[in-house]
Every structure is written in structure tokens, then in C-alpha cells.
């Protein structure tokens, strides 16, 4: 089954304790992206990656890091989480080869993070 | 980057046709318009995509005027299960760098409530 898998789905942590949210897709997609969703603010893009070793900032990259060492994985790293990073996070992917349109973004089920 | 503006919320009775409009005044030549549906605690799901004029699939229609500065998602005969948040996304894969990177920014979405 084609899917985007995020882990953990739920996490409660404390300020300053490094954490990683993993994202994996099994569709051989080149493009992957992270979004955060907060009430009244919609979906805001954190980072995206066009392919292995190619990443770029989205709208709200402060406090986050990403890496793309393998095509299927795109982890989101919070080096020193703060309470303002409490949010619902979504990973998404799509294929891009030979195409102009954005096509269909496939989203994971989300990871709800609480930073105390 | 094309910014989008949508109504915050809409109400509709079951069986009615619902039209949700998205404004995107600075849409670029290569940008496509895509609509997503999101239920609570789930990732967004692709509904429909278009570039100009009208596109129709089994669940919705998308109307795009000649100037492409707005678009309208039309949901025929809505049911209670159509209660969700609907997002308009404008973008393309041509991006702003030689690597073909691109940034996809969602708006704040429209919360549609279908009333029995």
C-alpha cells in the first residue's frame, strides 16, 4: 500500500530535549516536505526537499533541521524544542520527475507534539 | 510566491451545492491550482487540480476564470461526510532556482459545516 508513515504519532517532551520525528514514503517520490498545523493558521511549510541531499527552507524553518540522506526518508529534527513548537506536524511527498504541475501531495497521518 | 485567501468558514445544508472561492492575485504563469480536503486528526487529501477553465472529476469541479486570479471549488449535493476543512494550494515545480526547488504554501483553509 502506498503511504507516508510518520513516527511518533504522539509525543510529549520537555523544553530543550532533542527529538526527531521520522517520515518515510514507499512511493519512490523525489519531493518531500514538512508542515506544521496550528489553530487558525492553516498549514505552514517548514522545510522541503527536492531529492536526496537537496533541501530548502519553507515559511517557518526556525528551530528545525532536516536531512535527506535517502530518497524514502526525511526526518524532522528539533535540536532544542520550545513550547512554541507544540503543534501538529505533517509530512508529505510527491513525484516530480518530468513534470511542472504539483500533482497530488500524499500526506502522513500527522504527529502531535507537545513541548512542556 | 502566490498567496491565497479563502473564507474562514461556510455552512450548507445537506443536498445543496457548495462553492468555495480562493483568491490568488499574484499567481505565476506556471502555477497550478490544487484543492485538498482535511478531516480532523488526518492529513489533507487531494481533491482536484487545474490550470485554467474547468476541471471535473467524480467528486468535485474546479472553475478557473481566464485571468486565473481566483478559483472556485464546487461540491455538488453535499452530505454530512463532506464536513471538513478545504485548502486551496497554488504552486508549480518550476520554482526559483536552477535545482528546480519549489515552495508550496497552503492558505488557512475554509471550514465547511454541512447541516442536516
Characterise the protein shown here.
The complex is a heterodimer of chains A (116) and B (116). Chain A has strands at 4-7, 10-13, 19-25, 31-38, 42-51, 54-57, 65-66, 76-78, 87-94, 106-107, 111-115. Chain A is mostly beta strands and 116 residues long. In chain A, the strands form two sheets. In chain A, strands 2, 4, 5, 6, 9, 10 and 11 form a seven-stranded mixed β-sheet that branches. In chain A, strands 1-3-8-7 form a four-stranded antiparallel β-sheet, with no helix packed on it. The radius of gyration of chain A is 14 Å and the shape is globular. The termini of chain A are far apart. Chain B is mostly beta strands and 116 residues long. In chain B, 0% of the residues lie in helices and 47% in strands. Chain B is globular. In chain B, strands 1, 3, 4, 8, 9 and 10 form a six-stranded mixed β-sheet that branches. In chain B, strands 2-7-6-5 form a four-stranded antiparallel β-sheet, with no helix packed on it. The interface between A and B is medium-sized, with 30 and 30 residues.
Secondary-structure topology with pairs:
The complex is a heterodimer of chains A (116) and B (116).
Chain A: E1 4-7, E2 10-13, E3 19-25, E4 31-38, E5 42-51, E6 54-57, E7 65-66, E8 76-78, E9 87-94, E10 106-107, E11 111-115
Parallel strand pairs in A: 2-11
Antiparallel strand pairs in A: 1-3, 3-8, 4-5, 4-9, 5-6, 7-8, 9-10, 9-11
Chain B: E1 9-13, E2 18-23, E3 32-38, E4 45-50, E5 53-56, E6 61-64, E7 70-75, E8 84-91, E9 105-106, E10 110-115
Parallel strand pairs in B: 1-10
Antiparallel strand pairs in B: 2-7, 3-4, 3-8, 5-6, 6-7, 8-9, 8-10
Amino acid at each position: 500500500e502506498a503511504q507516508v508513515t510518520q513516527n511518533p504519532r504522539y509525543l510529549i517532551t520537555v523544553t530543550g530535549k532533542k527529538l526527531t520525528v521520522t517520515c518515510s514514503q514507499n512511493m519512490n517520490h523525489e519531493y518531500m516536505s514538512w508542515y506544521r498545523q496550528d489553530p487558525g493558521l492553516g498549514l505552514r511549510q517548514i522545510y522541503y526537499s527536492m531529492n536526496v541531499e537537496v533541501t530548502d527552507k519553507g515559511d517557518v524553518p526556525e528551530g528545525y533541521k532536516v536531512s535527506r540522506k535517502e530518497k524514502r526518508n526525511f526526518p524532522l529534527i528539533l535540536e532544542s524544542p520550545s513550547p512554541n513548537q507544540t503543534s501538529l506536524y505533517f509530512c508529505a511527498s510527491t513525484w516530480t520527475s518530468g513534470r511542472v504541475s504539483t500533482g497530488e501531495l500524499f500526506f502522513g497521518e500527522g504527529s502531535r507534539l507537545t513541548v512542556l | 510566491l502566490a498567496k491565497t485567501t479563502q473564507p474562514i468558514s461556510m455552512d450548507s445544508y445537506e443536498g445543496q451545492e457548495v462553492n468555495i472561492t480562493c483568491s490568488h492575485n499574484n499567481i505565476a504563469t506556471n502555477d497550478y491550482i490544487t484543492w485538498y480536503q482535511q478531516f480532523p486528526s488526518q492529513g489533507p487529501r487531494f481533491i482536484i487540480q487545474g490550470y485554467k477553465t474547468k476541471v471535473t472529476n467524480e467528486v468535485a469541479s474546479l472553475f478557473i476564470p481566464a485571468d486565473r486570479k481566483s478559483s472556485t471549488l464546487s461540491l455538488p449535493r453535499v452530505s454530512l461526510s463532506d464536513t471538513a476543512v478545504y485548502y486551496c494550494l497554488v504552486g508549480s515545480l518550476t520554482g526559483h532556482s536552477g535545482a528546480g526547488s519549489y515552495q508550496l504554501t497552503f492558505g488557512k483553509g475554509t471550514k465547511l459545516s454541512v447541516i442536516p
